[in-house]
């Protein structure tokens, strides 16, 4: 036991030397550690600043992209709005009306007729949709087209009348030149005074001068008919005077005649019925029966 303990006992001189060495070793370690730490901090400082700068640039680029995207969406939105926003103008039953288009062209609408067009897109394409009957006075310029369910009429600068009601499609060129086409791509070119009518899905030029006059009579505030089915005549009366006429007891006839659109409705009925020895009776306000 004594020998073993003595192996770990140090003399005073040995202890002094040992602690001196430990103190020197500790002093070096602290200095080395501090220097190494300082070097590490210095080395990391630029690396830390650089990502901060890159993040700033990235944010600016991101904002630029977002701003460009927002501008693009806005432009596209405005373009779609201009393309598909439409103005609709109607002449109610029993009235006539006129409307001036953005280029100064004028449309005169017959009773119970409607047009629609895109006002903000007008400079890119002069296009009008029509249901009913209208007379057009078109200013010269880009192609002007009128579309209806049964056909299309294209002009550059002219005046013309279109009837596009139900299964009827008729076009009369008054001045200039128009090209008329139907859904089957059948086309005809009309010069001043020429008139085309859709018959059995085909556009046919008409040579009857009286029919041309009849078609434009409404522009002169007149009713004019030339061997016209009586059902069509009374349909015109219904639209113009905003009334209902019962024809269930009347056989089909063809009427030829002329009278002013300003006469009272019962006077108009009297004029028409007289030719066929027919009578009429007022059933209620705005409703008549012919027999």
From TrEMBL:
It holds the Pfam family FecR. Gene3D superfamilies: 2.60.120.1440, 3.55.50.30. One of its GO terms (molecular function) is sigma factor antagonist activity. The keyword Metal-binding does not apply. Signal peptide: none annotated. Residues 89-179 form the FecR protein domain. The chain crosses the membrane at residues 63-85. Keywords: Membrane, Transmembrane, Transmembrane helix. Residues 222-284 form the Protein FecR C-terminal domain. This is Putative anti-sigma factor. It comes from Microscilla marina ATCC 23134.
